Amino acid sequence: MILVDDIARWGGEKTIICECGEIIEGSTFRDYIRTSANPSTSTIGHKKCGHIFNFIDGRMSKKYSSRIELKSLAVRFAEKNNMDGLKCERFLIEVDRLKSNGNLSDRDILIRAFHNL
Length: 117
Fold this sequence. Notes:
By secondary structure, the protein is an alpha+beta fold. The protein has a domain at 67-116. The protein contains 3 helices and 4 strands. A two-stranded antiparallel sheet has the order 1-2. The radius of gyration is 15 Å and the shape is elongated. It starts with a strand and ends with a helix. 21% of the residues are buried.
């Protein structure tokens, strides 16, 4: 099952990264699912992999990518948020440092690296 990680707010825009490795940018469809709040809750799904997201119940999986996969995801995140060269370099170094320090999920690593800039 593929779920999403809610990464950060940058310029008022919420960035969602699907566990299939894609940054979701308008590549969604609208659907309705059963949640604890309502039997018919409006939500979105990812067109590429087809997963429907459950934001109400907070069932977010913790993805632990390899170092290479995580850096690829971090580069896409930096590009999407228009980080300049120096800021992107510092962000990638911070991602690498956090990955080396323990068993944090991809979501936690990206959020901490972003906030440590």
